[in-house]
């Protein structure tokens, strides 16, 4: 594993609240490292409603999930946060010197003076299919929710799943792949009606072969399946595109000793600190009397958590409240005149 990165502040989660946490810490002259399990920033705003309008961001009558994330990323630019994407923070431990040691799924570790958990409802990670040896084929034969279908041109492809994403992939491959087989555990799809009708038509036309069953073994070229009637089948393939769904998982945070209450982290409403000094929790992940899971509330929480964090990072400094409108120091930090 890699040498630990020493930092004043580590933000867990780059959703809207984690991003605004970076901004508030930046105004207080605390620079951050940010880790997110996803390949990019935005949390639920990007994952669940990127192109939908949102109307209750203060001072912004309307934007979209993606628009909001873009604005937040632009807002934190002056503070040049270090982003570490595609890795989940998996461990958190207190060191003898009081600092917090955090480790990620990719073997990166951090020694942080303060930690801000902005993990929302958890990391949105693709579910994985549990079959012996299967992880060895990931990225070569087996592809979970592939971002592009281009590489499968001319191949014999098995698409597994029954939701919108799986059906759309099967249809998109009809004219590109050599052969398309759709595998699902039952002959019922959980998808948009129009999409279902298109897929059923393609099945009738022989463009997509439908196989009902559950994969039970795989050896790089052959998928073995069990049908609902208990029979065994084999499918030859070049690529297995799996769509088992994406689910949010709080995952390792549940093991950090933070006294979870119904999968949320209890905090006080002065500092938004957890039961661990220097470990704050903001946004959808926390709970306190009156908690509302709204972005505007998360922004307030992040602001107060940043001030409480500054008292730990700069224990001997009295920090005055300054306005971004008038403070020359803040203008310097923001890189404006
Ligand atoms: P999230 O957005 O959930 O982001 C958390 C991030 O943390 C994720 O990117 C995740 O990958 C990452 N993460 C989690 N665990 C780990 C880990 N261990 N290691 C590394 N990374 C981790 N709110 C409003 O105010 N107005 C609205 O109109 C509105 N509309 C909504 C519509 C829908 C359909 C949904 C689902 C929600 C809506 N919300 C709305 C709620 C709003 O999206 C959430 O309150 C907000 O996203 C919470 O932000 P967050 O940063 O706390 O968490």
UniProtKB/TrEMBL annotation:
Annotated EC: 1.18.1.2
Binding site residues for FAD: 36, 44, 49, 89, 124, 284, 325
Subunit structure: Homodimer.
Name of the protein described by the UniProt record: Ferredoxin--NADP reductase
Stored SUPFAM superfamilies: FAD/NAD(P)-binding domain
FAD/NAD(P)-binding domain location: 8-289
InterPro entries xrefs: FAD/NAD-bd_sf, FAD/NAD-binding_dom, Fd--NADP_Rdtase_type_2, Ferredoxin-NADP_redctase_2
Domain of life: Bacteria
Cofactor: FAD
Cofactor binding note from Swiss-Prot or TrEMBL: Binds 1 FAD per subunit.
Reactions catalysed: 2 reduced [2Fe-2S]-[ferredoxin] + NADP(+) + H(+) = 2 oxidized [2Fe-2S]-[ferredoxin] + NADPH
Family: Belongs to the ferredoxin--NADP reductase type 2 family.
Source organism per UniProt: Variovorax dokdonensis
Keywords, sorted A to Z: FAD, Flavoprotein, NADP, Oxidoreductase
PANTHER family: THIOREDOXIN REDUCTASE 1-RELATED-RELATED (PTHR48105)
